[in-house]
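Hello K.,

You asked for the raw outputs rather than the summary table, so here they are, unedited. I folded two proteins back to back in the same session to keep the settings identical. This is the first:
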Amino acid sequence: MKIIGVLLILGLWITSGKAEETIRIGIGTQDTTINCAAGGAVVRELHLLEKYLPHDGRYQNVKYDIVWHNFTSGPPLNSELLANKLDIGNMADFPAVLGATAFQTANNGVHTLYIASLSGSVRGAGNAVVVPIQSSVQSFSELKGKRISVPMGSTGHAMLLRAILEQGWDPNRDVTIVNQSPEVAGSALKANQIDAHADFVPFGELFSFRGIARKIYDGSSSGVSTTHGIQVRSDFATKYPELVVAYLRATLEADRLLRENPEDLCEKLYQWTGIDPEVCYAFHGPEGIQTRDYTFKPEFIQAIRGAVVTLRELKRTDQELNVDSFVTDIYIRQAAKEMGLDYDTRLKDYSPVPFPGSAEDTGKPVVDPRLAGQIWIKGETKVRLFSTPEAAINAALKAEAGGKTVRVVYVHDRESGNKLFAERAWYVRTGDELNAFLSKASADDWAAKHNGKEMSYAGVRIALGAGVAKND
């Protein structure tokens, strides 16, 4: 009977072609780094990868074991990639380079490949320096001799060092830099244990929105591009190229969903990541602080080259990295092709996600995004668009007067175009035009050059509120 049983099992195995194979796909994400959302949380929670994984040909008898592991920064994710506990990872340019050079040091025949971009800014927007909410510091130039925390080895660390060098300071003597994760920094800022904190997306906005800190410096001030993207172990990519393409197809669908309905997905991302929807929308909404972009813009590749140089100068690595071999577009090009997307057209397109429809106050499309404003009212599923900061703040005041709760008001920095939380911005009125600025220094300069009147958000509300009361 035993022999018959074995023969039956063997017969079934022969009939099916071969026994079922299990393939692990280990993916490292950074959920709170929300510009990685299209590669992490959205793909995971909406089960988009499962939608695209192949089940024919060589994968006919495959069972997929999809393992997700969330990290708060890139360095620990790199450790698990190196230990072969993960196959794919999402991270910024600096930790990506550190991970690649760690593989070179290990010299075990495996390396990492940078296979797609997720989000970035050719101007460096998104990385930020914040100070405690009650601090008297208004500009980066006032931080000499101060204690600044930062997650070491992150893209925020790189921005901080560049900002220090731009001031002509010695990072080892003129400031005290301490290693601190975003989670710890939030408490330290509240307790005034640090003078400033430098970080990556979205903590400059998150701490500002929650009233923990004020943003005094944005990475766009440096003009140095920054990018977050996708890395994969070379052994996994070589053995399972179709699975790499399937994952990238899932990220492209996630990108489309974020573009089509950012409000709804930002609400969901809050449930999945803990990042407030209003902060998420500042990045993933139209004209966001960073642009989701799956193509390898030359500026993004240059950001990676710059990271290599800077990390060697800082002696964080002694390895040279061949960026031309590290960055490859063969997988994302194939994924885009299978999704019906034109990679080369997108590669040439630098435009952010545009504002949808027309402004409520004019009934026309917004002409200059730097002068636009938006409000998000509690209970409404869509963010309202206005042609000017004044129109947006005015609408918020009227909504409040009508008993509604305004979740957030957005304006844009007059010079950089970066989206700002209106209550944390500075304003200058020149004639009939109200301009918003991230920093007081920028507002001061604009007021002086254009003979304008500088105003705080409270001052703008009082001035406009008087008009609202009079009109009502």
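The second followed immediately with the same parameters:
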Amino acid sequence: MTWIKKTFYVSLLVFIVALLFWGVYNLSFKKTVTKQENTQAPADNQQPVALKNNAEEPIAAVSDEGVIAPTLVPEGNAIKYYSASTGKVFQIDMHGNSKKTVAEKELIGIIDAFWSPDKTKVITKFKAADGNFKFYFYDYATDRATPLKDNIDQIAWNGTSNKIFYKYFDAGTKKRTLSISEPDGTGWSDLSAIDFRDIFISQVPKSGLVSFWNKPDSYTPTNLDVIPLAGGDTKTIMKDLFGADYLWNNSGTEALVSYVTAKGGNKLQLATINSSGGEFTNLNIPTFASKCAWSKNDKFIYYALPGSIPESGVMPNDYNNGKFQTADTFWKMNAATGEKTRIVSLDKMEGAYDATDLFLNNDESILFFVNKADGKLYRVLL
């Protein structure tokens, strides 16, 4: 055999071996890639980590962003809220899934919103460049927004969604009044003169009265006043408590009152009073009225119990001014017997919660709250 033939056969053999190895490698690599693609494909359909697999967790986030004015929709099967970053309105289910846009328009600078009791109307609150507040009324039925007049700094709905209460300051006369009007600000009338710059307003449920009180301040006694919706004499039903705040029950027969035990102090207490300001009962619960919610039948009080309150703090001033955040645990109390029950055991508490804006779903199986630590909406399984 000549050297030319030998060279040919050797080259052919090398080519065949190389071709064989290439085929094996290519087949193996293709299977590996296909397997990896099949393994990773579902990732595109996974929910955000903060909301993933939270249906059985005793406490979990249900929004993936900071929220403003979360509320149940009329059907009771979902929650809608304003985005704290964009002002858009979104809707989610009870566990934070099925997110959809309710209102696409961005409302940059929104700081609060007040839903009407039937959730068909809303009043939004903004802070103007001069430091004053500006309010807008929006009706979902007509898709129309109406600016309310200037010099309003506090607002609340009446129980039938057809009137609003607001505190008005007359820059000319320097007088402050509590007024009532149509939701768009028309047809207004004054109810009472107001002595304080900052007040809270709440209609007494299932009654013809509206209540108001000066902003809680550890150095100033708080007066709880009521006046008929049609106007008349103002009556003070509770006074001389420092830093007091109030939360009426659903029937208007009782109210929670949080206060500090001494002027300029930091020891909180929670009590109940009847609709006339009598039957004052200390519940021995050191929390804020703003961290509470009544059950629909008024038999239970759900509350967040704050921890990590500085011993040198002035309450509620330091907390309301954002000088610190609390580390809350979650409880409920039988309003008749005073029995207190922890809702979430300590070993199930992951993270820090500074709860506010508490509310329940329709069957009272879930307690919702806004966590001031991150602005998100959370839920607690009951």
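Helices lie at 3-40, 317-320.

Happy to rerun anything if the numbers look odd on your end.

Regards,
P.
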